[in-house]
Write a structure and sequence with these properties.
Strand order of the largest sheet: 2-1-5-3-4
Shape: globular
Radius of gyration: 12 Å
Structural class: alpha+beta
Number of domains: 1
Distance between the termini: 38 Å
CATH architecture: Roll
CATH class: Alpha Beta
Helix content: 25-40%
CATH topology: Ubiquitin-like (UB roll)
Number of strands: 5
Largest sheet: 5 strands, mixed
């Protein structure tokens, strides 16, 4: 399946791209993360500490064990703070 992956804040800085379209067989977000980490060291660095990352599927906050079935967009970003 084709999926749009968005990177925000320091995730984008480490990867060097704000977004990319990927062809993936990943069933869950964690599967996708593992695919990305295996690509290049910059991805491995960006996803080295999942406790400091959040993920949204089609603009809905979710967990890393969430299914990618029917998902068009995955976004990775650090936790947000309000003020």
């Amino acid at each position: 399946m084709k999926i749009e992956v968005l990177y925000f804040a320091w995730v984008r800085e480490r990867i060097g791209e704000p977004r990319e379209t990927l062809e993936t067989e990943a069933a869950t977000v964690m599967d996708l993360v593992e695919e990305l980490r295996a690509r290049e060291p910059r991805y491995d660095l960006a996803f080295s500490d999942l406790k400091s990352l959040r993920v949204a599927l089609d603009q809905e906050l979710t967990e890393f064990d969430a299914s990618l079935d029917g998902v068009r967009e995955v976004a990775f970003f650090p936790p947000m703070t309000g003020g």
